[in-house]
């Protein structure tokens, strides 16, 4: 029983780190560009399929891990510059554009890769289980877990210590004041959108060996990312991190003990947070 | 000048088209109207791949007979079921009322089959179900106009129970998707398994479309069964198998699953790690009969891919229809004669000898135990044992 709980704890945390990658991007983009990017799941799917295609031709998981986020981030930059910038301040239109973009991306992927279910094997170094006495656990989720935590610490450090991080925080807090101080919100917003979508693409590459690829996954991932940021609080990376862990644990242990109610438990948690603390557990109260 | 030339061109084109139309008209008068078969299958959504494979099978068979039966031409009118019973009802009405089809076929989802049942029954349009497996379709909700040429959930899983108890292990973990097919299949397996002295160690139902099976895997690891009987399909089957292997459970626990789990579409996504998994199904790649060899050769030649049981189901649905139309010599005006012809149809299918059971309107057929193997370079299933001719009891 103890081993079962430990296994499920690790499973939940690994899935939580995948959700964290998605929610972090969504949260950063919202903080700076004030756009709820509903195409986020489609960027995840794009990353996953690109990883599948490049992995087959390059043969190296690590190279793909580096390359795909760059490509997806580049697409994100182009989307911000040519689709969203012109709609600055018109939130409803921006959200509609991201929904449409999500549909287009997902359908293009479907047209190109077909409706078949695809799955990517983990790299040889991380394939198969790890034996710790009587405890057996696959290596790959452990890798995802470690990577998620390292990424959280890294992004936190970048936001706290680097000039760009300061600018991001300034624009998130008050774009008007930031621009009077010589920061260009447009440039910060462009870069942040690129980083946010790159994180979604990274999520796709990292997630593909854990969960299969199929049409429809984009909507599922957008939904999970939204739930995480609603629970954790928008605009703060701590919110995305702890929100993802909470959702991962509720989802994982829900599936273990009450499989039929797993999804319901997540929504119930979200409803509870919205009722008691509408700004999210670690969110800031918006004026 | 340019405009004149264009006008002349258009006139000439129209003339030619008219000629073609009139000659076709006289041709069809001589040959009678074509027989129109309405096909409703999912071409989008989570079951798009199934719809594609069943259609491939149907067209493969019709090509074999030159789109002819009983001296008449055959025409397929395809509509998208969209994995939604409400849509299926709408599409069936359209095919019947607007396109005036003579017969209906297809239907992926059992819920669609239930949804269209009363309408088809009232309009008295013969329906040949090519996939939907819920037992009730040919049991309590049976109709004299509705036939099933695929398989019932009970038929596919009941014979596997005693076979697993005797050949794989007595302690089995039961896992299935939490919907009608998963429950009926598990109940049928359990029925046969208990009779043969098997002991299910646990029974677990998971929601359709899960992204993560690690919780299920943990439960299986903790229960320490000899084997797992899983009833999953599509992406659920892929994710489950992948994680089962990642956790290394395939070293100590055998897989004895529904034929849906080791369908060739799923294997394509899993790769060699699934080698050795056992399953029960009504078709096996290595069945050594001439119909199967011919089917596999034609499928591989046309689509350059590995065939699967969905393509076989489409192939056989058309084979039953063509056989019945041949029996009535293309005269569909007497509906009772047509229904009688379907009821007494016997075909030589890639799955072996298949016969319509006039009492239940469900086909009686062989069910086989199979094992995932690499054969001629392709990942597929090989025959382990013939579990005999299985007839659905109809109640």
UniProtKB/TrEMBL annotation, chain A:
It is found in: Cell membrane. One of its GO terms (cellular component) is plasma membrane. CDD domains: TM_PBP1_LivH_like. It comes from the Bacteria. Keywords: Amino-acid transport, Cell membrane, Membrane, Transmembrane, Transmembrane helix, Transport. InterPro entries: ABC_transp_permease, BCAA_transport_permease. The chain crosses the membrane at residues 12-31, 38-56, 62-83, 95-120, 140-159, 190-211, 223-249, 256-276. GO terms for biological process: amino acid transport. GO terms for molecular function: transmembrane transporter activity. It is a multi-pass membrane protein. Belongs to the binding-protein-dependent transport system permease family. LivHM subfamily. PANTHER family: ABC TRANSPORTER ATP-BINDING PROTEIN (PTHR11795:SF442), BRANCHED-CHAIN AMINO ACID TRANSPORT SYSTEM PERMEASE PROTEIN LIVH (PTHR11795). This is High-affinity branched-chain amino acid transport system permease protein LivH. It comes from Meiothermus taiwanensis. The lineage of its organism: Bacteria, Thermotogati, Deinococcota, Deinococci, Thermales. The gene is livH_1.
TrEMBL record, chain B:
It comes from the Bacteria. Coiled coil: none annotated. Residues 34-373 form the Leucine-binding protein domain. Keywords: Signal. Belongs to the leucine-binding protein family. This is Leu/Ile/Val-binding protein. It comes from Meiothermus taiwanensis.
